[in-house]
Amino acid sequence: MNQQTDKAILVVSFGTSYEASRKATIEKIEQDIADAFGDHRIYRAWTSKMIISVLKKRDNYIVPTVKEAMEQMIADGIREVAVQPTHILDGIENHVMKEEVLSYKESFDKIVFGTPLLTSPEDEQKAIEAVNSEFSDLKDPEALVLMGHGTTHQVNVVYAGLDKKFKTSGHSNVFIGTVEAEPTIQDLVREVSAFQPSKIYMTPFMIVAGDHAHNDMAGDSPDSWVCQFKEAGFEVCPVLKGLGEYPGIRAMFVEHAREAIASM
């Protein structure tokens, strides 16, 4: 990191209380961005105040909020900031983060934002390729089920669109649902049952493999996704790996940061 520069990249993530996943995902994304932009100082912020609080109490591990990171950059003499979120969609979380950042705009010469993971048809195609390369050894009758988070924001339609795009690009054995919106687990069980796979691999379509992946997806309770598919008669193999572990996904965030810096 260049300590002399007045240019910075702020990498903003939701956060996770799972240390192993943090190191394999968020920290890898931050490192890839740092490696790509040696002339910028790299800062971090998380948007989940609950997770920040849990880590501070449990591990004495301190992560700044967006406001704290902005104040630190002002103290460090930063003049130009590119903000790169590791959010999947440009939903509520991303909008709130932008408002917080822009409340400090008088203190900087320039602030620009990189886009979240999926904001264009090209992004969707690259994400599909990144997922397919991670699961390239899927055999013909096997299926891959991806668990997205889901949002009440209208941008949630991206999940259904991506599901369709997988299928139109020759991957009829890939299915996407969400924990908190649509498509639901009930939609998925219906669709996957019609496909009749010999085995189902299931993995989070989220940056980290955190609470949703460990509990809602792969947990022991009857309403977890793994249990619901087993109940429907399928052999299920959960893969607890966040999208931040996929080199193709991390490369997309680096590219989004590059586009933001180029727009300054």
From TrEMBL:
Q: Which CDD domains match?
A: CbiK_C, CbiK_N
Source species:
Blautia intestinihominis
Q: Which Pfam families match?
A: CbiK (PF06180)
What's the protein here called? Sirohydrochlorin cobaltochelatase
| Cross-referenced InterPro entries | Anaerobic_Co-chelatase (IPR010388)
